[in-house]
## 1
Amino acid sequence: MFYLFVFILGLMIGSFLNVCIYRIPRGQSIIFPPSACPTCGKRLKPCHMVPVLSFLLLGGKCAYCKEKISAVFPIVELGTAALYTFLLYRFSIGMLFFKYSLLFSILIVVCFIDMENQIIPDEMIIAGLLAGIIFSSVDIQNLLRDYIPGALIGSGILLLIVILSKGGMGGGDVKLMAVIGIFLGWRKALLALFISFILGGIFAFVLLITRKKGMKDAVPFGPFLGAAAMVTVFYGQYIVPYYFK
């Protein structure tokens, strides 16, 4: 029963994350005004905003103007719910569950904004760093020897790549890696960085051989960092010992 509660909570939070994904890049408040159709501008009723269910009942279209609703909305809601439920299964209810739920929420917003707009908003970075410092401060013994070095080492490596590649990677990726590092610590941050390079390389290779992208075309790296961080959260404690051997 508690798993069902967390799943439903994840759906609701996912709905709010959709608001953040849509409004933050446009410089709009995530609180006011109330949700409305981006096409016709009519205010949505509560029955139009039930996570996933409203999308299905409305056939993926606005209740007023019948314009198609992006499939990103139910994907984010279901994805958030699934990740929260898996976090509960993996860590049970406790500090780690809340810590990683917040990290995943930040990563979801950042990744989808980066995919659509190729930017990583500073607002999310600042929120992530503050939250990471607060959660990491609970483990005060490891704050200075693990979490803060995690932020500095992970972002430092990407910063070096930015300098050497002369802009081949964005500054937002550097700042996002700092957020991941302050949450995970330096060992898991390095593992997440390594996994992100593998995921990014595979994806870039597929795009090249399918000729959907050229060698000089930009591909947002934030989603690979986010996905790698999630993999590390779930399986990092098993992989890290072998990785550092």
## 2
Amino acid sequence: MKPIPTLETARLRLRERTPDDAEALFPIFADAALMTYWSSGPHQSIEETRAKLTKSPDIQRVFRGWAITLSGDDTAIGFVTLREKRPSVSEIGYMVARQHWGSGIAREAVSAVLDQVLRVEGQRRVIADTDPENTASNGLLKALGFTLEGRLREEWETHLGVRDTFLWGLLASDWTAR
């Protein structure tokens, strides 16, 4: 597994996400509105969240997760994940607690991870997969410079039923040119 460096921004500290974050992140995973466009439904217990945060050795080889914390407070208020799809190409995911929506936290946190993987580590491409109706996430990706590369019809079977997906892509050259 690649290391998970601690990342600092003006307001945030992103550190390795661990099963110990389950209590702080459970309200996010239990929030039905927040989980609407996630691949699974809301969590029913902290134990379910802890299990989600506990990765098998096979997953750990390709998966990295950062807990988003406010500077000076180590309590997770969200997370950013990165899964290596193939060498130099990763898929990003993120979620922020409802009380921080609209504050720019997601943009700041995702930008920090994109800087890490595209500028520092030299990956060539980051992708994201979103539900077409997830206007907030789709808007964030567009604002960060991702290009909508396609729509896969009936791609996912989720707690909402069979759903289409938008595929977004960001090249390192697009990110560094910003």
